[in-house]
Structures are given as structure tokens and as C-alpha cells.
Specification:
Elements lengths: L9 H25 L2 H8 L3 H7 L3 H21 L7 H18 L1 H12 L6 H24 L8 H17 L1 H8 L5 H17 L4
Helix pairs in contact: 1-2, 1-4, 1-6, 4-7, 5-8, 5-10, 6-8
Length: 206
Amino acid sequence: MSPTARPRTRIQQKNRDTILDAALEVFSVHGFRGATLDQIAEVARLSKPNLLYYFPSKEAVHQALLTGLLDTWLDPLRKMNPAGDPVAEILGYVRRKLDLARDFPRESRLFAGEILQGAPRMRPAIEGDLKALVDEKAVILTRWMDEGRIARVSPVHLIFSIWALTQHYADFEVQVRAVLGAGHDPFAEAQDYLDTLFRKLLAPND
């Protein structure tokens, strides 16, 4: 019987979590195509047959990671409160996305790698849950613009720009740290810069 067909024991859950953490490390470094089950088993310190007991293929491990990742990625945008102050809510979203880039860089690179490949395993979720959430928040952003509370810009491209300007610090962290040099905290500096940038962008037109 498959370990997923009945409640998992504590050891089974621990082994499954260990495999997923190892897979996240391997996929974030080597990408889906470059990763192998042997590499994942080695990082997990489990035998390959033991790994295959939990996941029948590399694709199955990758899919399990992506399934859990999407909820993590959507949560910061879900928290944007339509009843809150528009600028505070948008800046809060920027900060949450930057925190996500700082705290989950491997997950960010995993997601970026999937998108760069054309999202073969995530397209339904992107065209479904992700698009629906962006559409919902775009309506809120447009209402704030109609009320004159923030400047009028494309709401969807505003969200795209937040993604680009926050996830960059995870996906290109080596480059960021190399250019800044020693003694810099890229995420703290980025937060100050992005707060200033978006405050100016969102200031209502006179």
C-alpha cells in the first residue's frame, strides 16, 4: 500500500519532509532537468529505494513541492485588506513579498525555474488560483484609484512590478551580494528603497 493511502506514521512523515527539503535544495541549484533522484537521495541521506517508497519519480517529488509552494506564494497577496489604507496595504504587500524572498530563497528559485520552463507542471494553478487572486486584487486597486486614494496605474502591472522587484533579491541573490559588497544587508536596504519607490509611484495626482 502507498504511504499516502493511510495516515502516515511519525517516521514516515519525517522521511517525507526530509526528502522534500533535500529535493528543494537540489532543484533550486540544478533545476528540474539537471536534478536526479540519486542527488536527492544523497542530500536526504536516504537510499534511493527508500526515496522511491515515498515518491515514485522525480516528477512526483517536484509536483509535491510546487503544490505546497503556490499557497505560500499567494498568501502575501491574499492579506491585502480592501478596507485598509491603500498605500499601507500595498507597502505591506511589498514587505511581505520581500520577507518571502529573504526567508524562502530556494522556493523562489524553484518557482522561477518552473516559470522559465513554461510552467509545464503549474500552468493550471497559474491560470486558475493565481489569476483569480490577481483579478480580485486588481478590482480593489482600481477602486482605490477611482476614489483618488492612489495614483492611476495599471493594477496588474503594479502587481507584476512588485513581484519583479522583490523576487529579484532571492533569484539573483549571488549577484546582488557581489555588487553590494561586504557589510550590506540587501533585504533591509531593499525595503527602504522599495518603500520610497512605491510611495512616490502611488502618491495621488494633484
